[in-house]
């Protein structure tokens, strides 16, 4: 199901950096967060549960996707329930398959039936995404950067999945992830992704532009000259008024 009239793409921050999360929250642009243990460690989170709880409190009620750390489906179920217990706005990341290629669709289905929202990750094909939706995943994450690495059209894949979801009235939402360049954000948005999860550095580049800076600098210089001239003219007018009264 694509975006409805009046809706816009959601922006998630792919990070565990609390300062970055606070900053983008203050801009009014942040709709959620995705993270994993590797990102947490890089961003100074040395306790997975503690950092996940901190992020969840900070962004609540917006969703926070937190990843399981096992390749065993039975253990995924156990971990997922524990992770989900940390905060009501936590969504659990479950991979579409294990390292051995075993589908994790049953895990997705069992968790969703139990009321645990799932972000099914590591989707690189149409089949993976639509089967995740059929299993009831709240989100399916298409790793756009990795799709492109294989020489395939990530934007076309996103469009195809979105069209299929819309045709069948699925409530599953597509997250475009594995963003490697700022232009990937545009490509995913134009393709109709419901959500784009972006590392802070690329979101920064997406909003910045050297010529916008130059334009603003010119505005400020022109405004300073105009204000100075206004003050001169006001002073002349005051003097002229005083001389007229004498």
Characterize this entry briefly.
The protein has 246 residues and is an alpha/beta fold. The chain has eleven helices and eight strands. It folds into two domains: 10-207, Aldolase class I (TIM Barrel), CATH 3.20.20.70; 209-246.
Return the CATH class of the largest domain. Answer: Alpha Beta
- CATH-defined topology of the largest domain: TIM Barrel
H-E order: EHEHHEHEHEHEHHEHEHH
Number-wise, the strands total: 8
Helix content: 40-55%
Q: What's the arrangement of strands in the largest beta sheet? A: 1-2-3-4-5-6-7-8
Care to describe what's here?
This protein is α/β, with parallel strands linked by helices. It has two domains: 198 residues, TIM Barrel (Alpha-Beta Barrel), CATH 3.20.20.70; 38 residues. It contains eleven helices and eight strands. The chain has an eight-stranded parallel barrel with strand order 1-2-3-4-5-6-7-8, surrounded by seven helices. Strand 1, helix 1 and strand 2 form a beta-alpha-beta unit. The longest helix has 36 residues. The radius of gyration is 24 Å and the shape is elongated. The mean pLDDT is 95.
């Amino acid at each position: 199901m694509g975006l409805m009239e009046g809706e816009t793409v959601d922006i998630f921050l792919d990070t565990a950096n609390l300062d970055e999360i606070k900053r983008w929250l203050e801009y009014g642009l942040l709709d959620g967060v995705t993270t994993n243990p590797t990102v947490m460690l890089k961003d100074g989170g040395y306790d997975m549960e503690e950092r996940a709880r901190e992020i969840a409190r900070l962004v609540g009620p917006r969703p926070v996707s937190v990843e399981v750390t096992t390749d065993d489906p039975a253990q995924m179920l156990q971990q997922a329930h524990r992770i989900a217990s940390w905060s009501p706005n936590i969504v659990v990341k479950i991979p579409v398959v294990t390292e051995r290629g075993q589908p994790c669709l049953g895990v997705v289905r069992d968790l969703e039936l139990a009321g645990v929202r799932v972000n099914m990750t590591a989707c690189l094909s149409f089949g993976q995404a639509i089967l995740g939706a059929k299993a009831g995943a709240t989100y399916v994450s298409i790793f756009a950067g990795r799709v492109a690495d294989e020489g395939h059209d990530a934007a076309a894949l996103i469009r195809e999945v979105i069209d299929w979801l819309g045709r069948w009235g699925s409530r599953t939402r597509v997250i475009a992830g594995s963003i490697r360049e700022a232009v990937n954000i545009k490509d995913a948005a134009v393709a109709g992704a419901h959500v784009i999860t972006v590392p802070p550095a690329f979101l920064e580049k997406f909003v910045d532009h050297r010529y916008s800076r130059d334009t603003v600098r010119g505005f400020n210089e022109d405004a300073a000259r105009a204000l100075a001239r206004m003050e001169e003219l006001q002073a002349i007018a005051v003097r002229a008024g005083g001389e007229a009264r004498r």
